[in-house]
């Protein structure tokens, strides 16, 4: 009876691999265009703070028995809004973010250890466990990703104008603070859906690396966003394939592939510029 | 026609007051220039008009449907953001290629459409900013030190262009400038600002006002006469003679 068992195992494997790839692509779709704005506006540390806070959200949601997605989203959003509100009020932003990002992470890890009755491996949420993504997770990831992608496309012109110069936006009747809020909101949703895929420590990598890779080859903001989507998708699929092939952790493998693509595109960009 | 009425407006940055009790009106087609020392609240006034700053008290009344074209003092484009001139001009509203070429032509920046913004010289950059403001089809053109970073022929050409645009488009112009002699010749009215409106009126009135002389000395009146002459002379040359020199708008 070895043959049917093997077929069953392969079917099962295919199933979770397909789900994992779909989850990775979903996150890449939303993260890549948003990541362009994170790069252009130099918000990388802001993304870190939001992502690290999500760990605290995971702990709280396990403690209160609500869904991990809802808990992570709520805390990530709170963190993002707090940071947004504090920005431009004379605080040294990088210091403030450093304090908030790492204390949120530390409090989150401590809170996880204190939860009674739940044995949770924090590694799952620090590095993600994309292979454990179920059908309902997939639905949450794709709904979240589509909302963020839709929001980014809808606000694209206004976001781009505000990014170039807030006063240009004001003069045209756009409120750059509202656009900043759109980005903050999008970032919190991406963090909440991606925490299971790449984990809190590597989410920002998925935002930034595809966008930065696309920058080397792009000549317009839109080309950079499309390029980032392509590179993000390729990283997700390639990383999962590599992790299956070499039996390596999936989240970090995805980021490694993205990093290699960053190197390749930058070398290509340099040779094209000089050659 | 009245475009803008500011009455008794005060604006502060946090706890420090920037401008106090400012009254100002702008009518269609006139050129009004704001002069004043550093930190006198010139940019603050402009930013309150475009709605970027909320006044603590007083009112800014814009005529319904009035369109503003704004040229900021500084605009640095992050090197990570690849953007061409024509894409930049399509913000925040999408513009047709024809409108873009027209606006670039009006601003004296023809054929720059496909250049990356970061590859423009200082003078070209200012003209592209002006073209973007013109695409709004403005009733009021607001310029914050539009000649920052330009050499003297370049800035003279730009002021000539602004005056020309006032005539061709009928837009009113409100600008901030440090170049007193240019201001005095190119403006219908001058507002001298130093935290409040010190004096206000035609260039001749302001130049002879004791408040203005206290701020800028009396030497500028001589410069005024001198510049009037130069300005008339240069007007026919158009802007072909701009001596733009390359300015790096961010390195890679």
Spell out the key features of this protein:
heterodimer, A: 275 residues, mainly alpha, ABC transporter involved in vitamin B12 uptake, BtuC, globular, B: 252 residues, alpha/beta, Rossmann fold, 2 domains, disordered C terminus
3D architecture notes:
The complex is a heterodimer of chains A (275) and B (252). Chain A is mainly alpha-helical and 275 residues long. Helix content of chain A is 81%, strand content 0%. Chain A has helices spanning 2-40, 44-64, 68-86, 93-114, 123-127, 135-154, 156-164, 166-171, 176-194, 203-215, 221-246, 250-274. In chain A, α1 packs parallel to α6 (135-154), α2 packs across α3 and α11 (221-246) crosses α12 (250-274). Chain A is globular. Chain B is of the alpha/beta class. Chain B folds into 2 domains: 2-67 and 138-235, P-loop containing nucleotide triphosphate hydrolases (Rossmann fold); 81-137, no CATH class. Chain B contains 9 helices and 9 strands. In chain B, the strands form 2 sheets. In chain B, strands 5-6-7-3-8-9 form a 6-stranded mixed sheet, sandwiched between helices. Chain B has a 3-stranded antiparallel sheet with strand order 2-1-4, covered by helices on one side. In chain B, a hairpin with a 2-residue loop joins β1 (2-13) and β2. The radius of gyration of chain B is 18 Å and the shape is globular. The termini of chain B are far apart.
């Amino acid at each position: 009876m070895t043959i049917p068992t093997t077929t069953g195992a392969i079917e099962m494997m295919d199933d979770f691999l397909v789900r994992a790839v779909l989850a990775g692509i979903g996150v890449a779709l939303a993260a890549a265009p948003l990541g362009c704005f994170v790069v252009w506006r130099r918000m990388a540390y802001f993304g870190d703070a939001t992502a690290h806070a999500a760990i605290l959200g995971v702990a709280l949601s396990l403690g209160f028995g609500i869904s991990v997605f809802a808990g992570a989203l709520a805390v990530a959003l709170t963190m993002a809004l707090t940071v947004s509100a504090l920005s431009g009020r004379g605080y040294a932003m990088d210091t403030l973010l450093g304090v908030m990002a790492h204390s949120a992470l530390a409090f989150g890890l401590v809170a996880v250890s204190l939860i009674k009755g739940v044995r949770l491996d924090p590694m799952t949420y620090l590095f993600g466990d994309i292979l454990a993504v179920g059908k309902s997770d997939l639905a949450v990831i794709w709904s979240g990703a589509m909302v963020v992608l839709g929001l980014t496309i809808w606000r694209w012109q206004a976001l781009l104008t505000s990014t170039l110069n807030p006063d240009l936006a004001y003069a045209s009747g756009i409120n750059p603070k509202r656009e900043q809020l759109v980005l903050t909101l999008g970032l919190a949703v991406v963090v909440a859906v991606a925490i299971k895929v790449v984990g809190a420590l590597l989410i920002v990598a998925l935002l930034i690396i595809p966008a930065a890779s696309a920058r080397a080859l792009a000549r317009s903001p839109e080309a950079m966003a499309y390029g980032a989507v392509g590179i993000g998708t390729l990283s997700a699929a390639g990383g999962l394939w590599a992790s299956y092939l070499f039996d390596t952790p999936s989240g970090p493998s995805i980021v490694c592939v993205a990093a290699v693509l960053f190197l390749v595109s930058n070398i290509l960009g340099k040779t094209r510029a000089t050659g | 026609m009245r475009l803008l009425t500011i009455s008794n407006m005060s604006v502060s940055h946090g706890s420090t007051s920037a401008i106090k009790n400012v009254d100002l009106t702008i009518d269609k087609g006139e050129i009004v220039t704001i002069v004043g020392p550093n930190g006198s609240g010139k940019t603050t006034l402009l930013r309150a008009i475009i709605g970027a700053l909320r006044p603590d008290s007083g009112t800014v009344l814009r005529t319904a449907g009035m369109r503003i074209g704004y040229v900021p003092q500084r605009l640095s484009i992050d090197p990570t953001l690849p953007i061409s001139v024509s894409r930049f001009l399509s913000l925040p509203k999408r513009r047709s290629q024809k409108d873009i070429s027209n606006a670039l032509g009006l601003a004296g920046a023809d054929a720059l459409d496909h250049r990356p913004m970061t590859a423009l010289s200082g003078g070209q950059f200012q003209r592209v900013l002006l073209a973007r403001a013109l695409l709004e089809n403005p009733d009021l053109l607001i310029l914050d030190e539009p000649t920052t970073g330009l050499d003297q022929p370049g800035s003279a050409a730009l002021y000539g262009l602004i005056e020309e645009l006032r005539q061709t488009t009928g837009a009113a112009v409100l600008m901030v400038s440090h170049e007193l002699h240019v201001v005095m010749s190119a403006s219908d009215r001058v507002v001298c600002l130093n935290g409040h409106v010190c004096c206000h009126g035609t260039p001749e009135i302001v130049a002879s006002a004791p408040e203005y002389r206290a701020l800028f000395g009396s030497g500028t009146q001589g410069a005024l006469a001198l510049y009037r002459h130069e300005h008339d002379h240069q007007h026919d040359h158009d802007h072909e003679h701009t001596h733009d020199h390359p300015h790096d708008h961010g390195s890679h």
